[in-house]
Amino acid sequence: xxxxxxNADSRPDLDLDEAFGDDRPTIDExxxxxxxxxxxxxxxxxxxxxxxxxxxxxxxxxxxxxxxxAGTQRHGGARSxxxxxxxxxxxxxxxxxxxxxxxxxxxxxxTRSCNLSCAHCRAAAEFGxxxxxxxxxEIKSNIDDITTITNPIIILTGGEPLMRPDIWEIIDYAHExxxxxxxxxxxxxxxxxxxxxxxxxxxxxxxxxxxxxxxEGHDAFRGxxxxxxxxxEGIKIAKRHGVGVQINMTVTTLNYQMVEEVHDLAESxxxxxxxxxxxxxxxRGEDLLDKELPPEExxxxxxxxxxxxxxxxxxFKPTDAPHYYRxxxxxxxxxxxxxxxxxxxxxxxxxxxxxxxxFCFISHVGDIQPCxxxxxxxxxxxxxxxxxxxxxxxxxxxxxxxxxxxxKCGVCEYKAVCGGCRARALSVTGDYLAEEPxxxxxxxxxxxxxx
Length: 451
Ligand code: SF4
Ligand code: SF4
Prior knowledge:
Blueprint: H1 16-19, H2 29-37, H3 89-98, E1 105-109, H4 136-146, E2 153-157, H5 167-176, E3 180-185, H6 192-200, E4 205-209, H7 215-222, H8 227-240, E5 244-251, H9 259-268, E6 273-278, H10 295-309, E7 315-319, H11 324-334, H12 341-344, E8 359-362, E9 368-369, H13 386-392, H14 394-399, H15 407-410, H16 422-429
Parallel strand pairs: 1-2, 1-8, 2-3, 3-4, 4-5, 5-6, 6-7
Antiparallel strand pairs: 8-9
């Protein structure tokens, strides 16, 4: 979802599982138990075993604010719209046939054109048309193919997706085929007319990047004076028209001490969700390599997020920070709690990195990647159907097999719930299965503490 960068990020950044009431796990109970106690030797293999559409026993929708003060929610409210991404008949049939989970969320960079040029943009987008972008017909035929195997949420991203004049036709077609389109936007182009169209075309939510609590920092980061004010105005207009809004903040050394302030700004704007993204230095973000938080500070931000979630009225969580799912379990253990769905909502059910597991990215020219930050093309939809690439790609299949992880991730008791950021491993080491370079944790087995 490339809008923590740019406007429509390429990572699973929208709070969509909860927004759509999807309570199906991406990890199974055995893996959760392994993460809670063991040394991870059993936490391997392809995480199957929970056919789409079959909730786990005893479950109720994630996001129940169990045990939290009235009016607050630990992991957001379940605003179920009765849509289960990747839970329809096609997905169930696909999973039964192949033993592979169907994608639940697809981020689709429908254009790389953008009216801004943000410092950290994955797309490294510029104003103006790009060569080779998928045509409307190509997009439609890909939606046809995708919906033969799943009914995903499709995050229309960019660049700035509102730069694409046929976006409304794409949205209508996705709905018609049983998918759920949402938009990642920088919000600077949102007028009353655009917001009314979003509502009319049944866009349930947009995600918008706000990286600083003030114009000075945000405009400098976004490369355009006046951008902050326009973004805030766009958010207000969208809300006025009943379109849900999620604010995304990309955390770097430039702003990590302002996370609380941006959270409070999000709260004051009455948005639905606030997600912090840990910078993944690829695309234009490579220029920000030296702005990536050192692992120790990174850990502190995630620990702060754990505590802040307890009282935040927003659906609030870190994204692209897989080891947050390790931290949840460490903290819960220290508090004498179990990481159950009742207490932790969907955070108990999902894992850190979903790239290639239930999420992927399609670029403006049709290249498929596990996420927008994973700088490797696994196929192109102009040459091969999406469904075939999802099923047959060696890289996808390796990402689904946690036993292939290397280094400390390979022996970590949390590998099934965390897995490390594969894009960061690829970017730093050239090997997407290498250990996550930004994790301070030393697995138990490396400390000689395994039973
Ligand atoms: S060592 Fe790897 S799997 Fe373990 S918590 Fe760190 S990033 Fe996650
Ligand atoms: S590889 Fe990293 S950036 Fe991509 S989905 Fe996984 S955690 Fe997010």
